[in-house]
Amino acid sequence: MSERNTGLRAMKKRQTRQNISHHATRLFLERGFDKVTIADVAAAAQVAKMTVTNYFPRKEDLALDLREVFVELPAELVRGRGQGESALEALRRGFLDAVERRDAVLGFSGPPFARMITGSPALAARLREFHEDREHALAAVLAEETGAAADDLVPRLAAVQLVGVYRVLFDEALRRTIDGQGHDEVAAALEPAGRAAFDLLAPVLGDYARRG
Predict the structure, then answer these.
(1) What architecture does CATH give domain 67-205?
(2) Where along the sequence do coiled-coil regions lie (predicted)?
């Protein structure tokens, strides 16, 4: 009975979070991010204002609700890389797989959402924090995987360059989306650009953190 209750509570929390996120996104797209308040979201979702802030402490996270996946993706790819695979090879593989899936984490979105992100200084600033958090997360995994000393700058330097590919091409995906390109057109541009970018880093980082 206790396990069942725990499962029901978890499901209820997921449903509440999804409900809040759904109504927030709708309001942001209709009115613009900066013109919508937390109180507006709470009223639309029919929950208390405190409930909204419990699930989303920052208003920006209502619009960018994939933070955890976004930040952890490169680190998880490196942590789960195969035998004989380097960090760069794992990240290249993950990037190309995500392009094939038209993954939102790479910037695949509709024009209204892309314009909302690029048109709001608050969202743009929050997105920069996501990119920085992603660099730190990858650097920590690289340090752990290579046994680097605490004061070794190499993992951080490598992370900045490797995640930089994702960062630049995320911006490119948004730009092309705003210009009216569909997912297939964006993917057709990102796939060769990603290959070229990782190839550019390969002479220096191609063997870095190779497993086994």
Answers:
(1) Orthogonal Bundle (1.10)
(2) none
